[in-house]
Write a structure and sequence with these properties.
heterodimer; A: alpha+beta; eight-stranded antiparallel beta barrel; 8 strands; 19% helix; elongated; B: mainly alpha; 21 helices
Amino acid sequence: MPKQKLILAYLSLVGIPVLALLGILRRGQRLTPPVSVGGAWNLEADFSALAGAPCRDLLLSVKQPFLSIAQSGPSLAFTINDSRRTTLTGTIQKTSLSMGPGPSGTPDGGIGSCADPRVIHLVAEVGKEAEQRILTGTLSIVDCADCKPIPFRATRQRSREGEGR
Amino acid sequence: MDLGTLILQIGVVIAVSRVVAILFQKIQQPKVMGEMVAGIMLGPSLLGWVAPHLSVSIFPSASLGYLNSLSQVGVVIYMFLIGLALNPKSLREHGHTAVLSSHVSIIVPFVLGSALALFLYPRLSDDSVSFTGFALFMGAAMSITAFPVLARILSDRGMVGTRLGALSIACAAVDDATGWCILAYIVVVVRAHGTGTPLWVTLGGLVVFLLVMVYGGRPLLRGFEAVYRKKGRLSESALSLIVVFVLLSAVATEHLGLHLLFGSFLAGVIMPKDKRFVRYILDKLETPTVVILLPLYFAFTGLRTSVRVITGGPMWLFCGIIVLVAIAGKLGGSMIAARAAGARWREAAGLGILMNARGLMELVILNVGLDIGVISPSLYAMMVVMALVTTFMTTPLLEWAYPLRLVREETVEVSREEADYETAVGRAAL
């Protein structure tokens, strides 16, 4: 291959893509990804208001960290730290986070479901406190009239690299 | 965790890997393809889904740290073998075509991967990762080639002696070396951002380390080569010292804020490249690494890959786009480059198809990405699917574009030593 043609081929096939890469990196700085909530969260709540309610034992049996969140963009996968490691899905929109069984995911219903971890519903706002990310919101049990929503506050544990993402 | 559980895990992983690898070989697929699939089968994507209790009893989450540690040792040695098998001379021997093809086969998928990041960043990432880190990682993950898989396919098809075979080996060697340099940069940037260590400290440490390796380590390794030339073998103590050197190099890069694997890879790269010496080391280290430790790495990868996190139409659409972009970038980019450099269409297509195989190298990169938090579990699963698809398609596509009939016609005379060397390179990982 003649040298001149090779240089031309090199400039067009390597030089132009390099310039394109610089443009992409510049353009990407303007993108806004969802707020990071991945990781393990310790939850603080006053469960005394649930005295006598059928969901009390369920919520008290969950160990800390109460939940772990695996995040993929706005899609969230929650793992409740109960004996069955119950998993639920949720989403984050700007700073509003929600987790729940979803319209078709509610088990049988009725009083029996009050003790089912799969009907735990959580809504929260993501905030920051002393450079630490926090969640503040309410925890409730879907279709369980005896269990009133409980306000909570959760703090994210310092995680190892990549954990909980 | 009791030792019995770990031994059971090792036994199950080796047995399943072997069976699936044999089945894949029966359909003309490289063994590594079967081992990758076996790893996925043992994870939450299959075993954890169809038999969750069995999965938990064999792979309790508390025990996975031990399995991970063992598998990491395997991949550290494996990366040393990859570095060892790289021969910068092979690029120089094939002139301008190889230079142009290899550079284009890196930059085109890199740019396409980074462009895809514009679309995926808001959908599959979060604000703990910078766009630059995310985009560069996507680019690097798209541009990697499975050098050992490629070498094995060439050797199995008797293509080492063809012009295409020689060109592919040269390009893949450059691609891998460049890909790892880019990944090293990304890891440094992401980790420096995360740990608060100033970037200049990490970079300064790396420069010092490189100088020590090249001017201190290399002469030491030449001593081993001299002993081998004199005696035709190395003592067990000498081999142990080489392994210790690799492990120390790995630990050094980990402490410098990079990753274990870069150190072991570098140790392999600076090893003397006398073909007989390289083959001797490969022969000595390949069996325990390939038969025992690498299947553990595939299993570990499979255990952290859940295809079930790719839920719903949009997620599968993202996955499909990733696969298409990966193929277009690597296969298309390499093909166009080879064509521009004067290769015939069929030869150019053959090069593109071979360079598109990603194999284990992709899994290694993806695990690094997941470890440093630059990709999410869903994106990791999608990229694993991409690695499987691109590796699986290589052999049938190559047979279609470059049938064995043509290989026989075009095979040129190469020295027995040369052919044996390339075979050993392929065998080292497969």
